[in-house]
Amino acid sequence: MKDPGPSTRPTEGLVIPPGGGRTVRTAAQQVTFKVTGAHSTVASTFEVVVPPGFDVGAHTHSRSEELFYLLEGELDVLAFEPKVRTRDDWREWESPSGLRHIRATAGTMILVPPGCPHAFANPTGRPARMLFQASPPPDHERYFEELLELLAGGGIDPAAVEELRVRYDIEQLTPLRHSPPVQAPMADVGVTS
Predict the structure, then answer these.
(1) Cβ atoms < 10 Å from Cβ of 137
(2) Which of 40, 55, 93, 171 could potentially form a cystine with 121 if both were Cys, beta carbons 3.0 to 4.6 Å apart?
């Protein structure tokens, strides 16, 4: 890669305090933009809160490399080419060498090269939080902005999500889903007859 020269190179670093960055929230996901294409030519960095019941769906990118680092909580994850790409549930997939999805816990890191099918889902009753990098910027920034606009209405339009993903180098293999766990009705507390 050619050196951009002194006139276009940043002259100062970027320090983002705890809680800093622009945050976009929906019932299906919360994304905080930490480092964008305005700051880096290498990668965009996000903090993502994955609520219970969210499944990003298995997908691939032909050009992007991604890195996920689980900070809190648990997620089911995979990053491999399966023997067969079924369209329903990626958690049933198995690689030719016998790999299956795993339950990732805090401290787990996942590196996804271009072309590698990958997915994550939160099957637990608690939110999970992860640091996520996508390279090169800024495509994933734009994708997140548009995806979160689609999800803001509360429902998921599978055709709209698939069309959005096609525009941003995302081949959707299984559907994006959000099925929050059903809360049991609360019993009256402190009422006596």
Answers:
(1) 21
(2) 55
